[in-house]
Input
Amino acid sequence: MLSIFELQEYVNKKIDEEQIPGWVSLVPKVLLGICINITEDFYKKIAKWLNDMENYRLQETYENHLIIKLVVVQFINNFLSLFYVAFYLQDMARLRATLATLFITKQIIGNAKEAILPYIMEKVKMYHMTYKMAEENINLDEDSEDNENLNEGQDEIDQKNEQHEQKDEHSELFNARKKSTFHSLKKNESEMFTLTQAEVESCMKTYEDTFDDYLEMLIQFGYVILFSSAFPLAGICALLNNLVEIRTDAFKLCTSLQRPFGQRVENIGTWQDAMELMGVIGVLVNFGLLGISGQIEHAFPGVSTANVIMIIVVLEHITLACKFAIAYAIPDIPHWVSLQMAKLEFNRREALKKLDQAVLASAKENKEKITKTHEEHCSSPTMKELKKPEPGKVWPTAMTETAANFKLYAGLRPVDEVDKDYLNEDFQNSKPLDEKKG
Output
């Protein structure tokens, strides 16, 4: 970067001496933009390597710290040269030209890297795969033909010579047939070497994560707000780039990458904090540029340096207070969205309540049906309740077994097992027949 700045100084000196045209001054700035885009990938690898070495336990913690590292290194890589021009050289005209050149160069190179380059690489990869498949099939055909030729004899060679002489006599007919055969073989080979859509998509790269897209938007946001006082047209350039970016991202996802799977998240997480921090830094930088450019001295002639610093600090605090007040006043979720979400939640609960009531009513109805069926079944003649025998009577053997099955009269014994003492006592109490007659 320092060597590019030295080149810029040399070119500006030559332009002042009118030795070279003025448009040459853009060359070092474009080289600086290319250098920044090249080192961007290098810094990404360093940040990821450092994050892997820290070995976090949770995936969420790993991603949050990776975002912090990426934001820090990319902030230094993209904005260090602008801070050097703004606060060290204090050249507003050069800052404006450098910012415009870097911003536009980054947008062009970024769109080319995201859409055009992956598309070309994917097409080259497909052509290479198709050529390799065709070469393998041709080698197999040649091997099979060589094996057949080795088994043929000299008689077949003579026959081929005779056929060749006959073909010379009918050359026109042979050429016509040869052309038709060539076209048919070419058609069959094209069908044979054509890859299906599933095969093509399986060879594409996967869409790993959204870090690159969020990082690109963060850097663009920084170019717009950090030095907006030096280059007010940065916002319009960002708008035009975003309109083009919508189509380039869609083209990239549809032609160069496998279909990504969506994931539900509550918010954008650490990227939101990075955006808010970038807004605060933007306020500080712009008021710093306001003090360096000398506009306060033009507005208030005769003011001292201490008063200029005081005015800048007061205005900066007022602006930050307004920023945080507006952020607090505007809710993250609009009011009408909150109402719709509340209605959906109410309808969901009402539907769940009705479903529970329907389930309970159905269960109660089924229980009543089962109870009624059971009562009807028990009231049938075959299932009537056995009555307890009167005192002094015993159950027959068959009936005792039936009563035992119902566990109602387990203490009763059959007639065959009646106590013999009871029978003897009854026999002794009975009088003989002769005595009764007397």
